[in-house]
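Let's practice the habit of predicting before peeking. Look at the sequence and jot down your guess about where helices and strands might fall. Then scroll down.
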Amino acid sequence: VKLADARAAAARQAELLGAGELGPYNLKANSCVTHVVDVLKAGGFGVPKTPLAQYRFLRAMTQAESAGGGH
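Done guessing? Here is the structure:
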């Protein structure tokens, strides 16, 4: 994934990982999907706003990567 601001994405990732406990798992508000979306947004990558749309977006992106389509 090409990001407009990869440094900001890396900084956000480090911030989240450095936070320690990120709270209880919640499918819509605190999951691996929301984590990845948060990092992508910090990097300037446009992602959908709703949890279901975010999941579908990331799933389609990973399937394209697996098929060699890239992004």
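How did you do? The first helix runs from residue 6 to 18.
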